[in-house]
Amino acid sequence: MKKAIVTGHSKGLGAGIAGALLQGGYNVLGLSRSALPGFESGLEQVALDLGDAQALSNWLESGELADFLEHAETAILVNNAGIVEPIAPLGRQGAAAIARAVTVNVSAALILADAFVAATEGLEDRRLVHISSGAGRHAYTGWSVYCATKAALDHHVRGVADDGIAGLKVESLAPGVIDTGMQATIRATSEEDFALRERFVGLKESGALGDPDSVGARIVAHVTGPKFGAELVTDIREL
Known about the structure:
Blueprint: E1 2-7, H1 12-23, E2 27-32, E3 43-47, H2 53-61, H3 64-69, E4 74-79, H4 95-119, E5 126-131, H5 144-163, E6 168-174, H6 181-187, H7 197-205, H8 212-223, E7 233-235
Parallel strand pairs: 1-2, 1-4, 2-3, 4-5, 5-6, 6-7
Helix pairs in contact: 1-8, 2-4, 4-5
């Protein structure tokens, strides 16, 4: 039986990934604050705010993740959930916004990765993918928090790979620039806080943003394919 967990599955790229996995015959467990409509067979959904570390801890203690993964022959964790805020130079970011970004983008991903590996011990085919960003590899003004959190995911897989865990393949994968709610947030930011705003407005106006469903399908084809994990830090546009 093929099983996958997808965080932030209810919209944007997460919905594209979840849909492609379902079409590929995977049972999918989606973790998000909201539900993904239109899917029934093969999809389980848990309403969970990944910005609430205690709520995540309580859910893991319930055993629901381990129960879902029971009897899996192939298991995948896609840490897709992420937020781009705060978008502002240092000094105008705010403690609450910084803490939430680190919790959603880093802490939740690492906690789920740990729980996933523990719950799949002995499984010969288990795969962990962090959805990272080019921002983790190149610095952008106004995005110091986002850049730092995505760089953390890239480096996490390097450390995990060095652990040499049996049956586990890992990768931190950048999906490119996609037409999602995150991009709308970026375009709504003032130039005072994000000097590159007009660049992203131009990407939208010129039709240069990727489609979440098609990019999600490409990601799933790679993650489920034979070349996954051959390189630890990758970009779907270069594969």
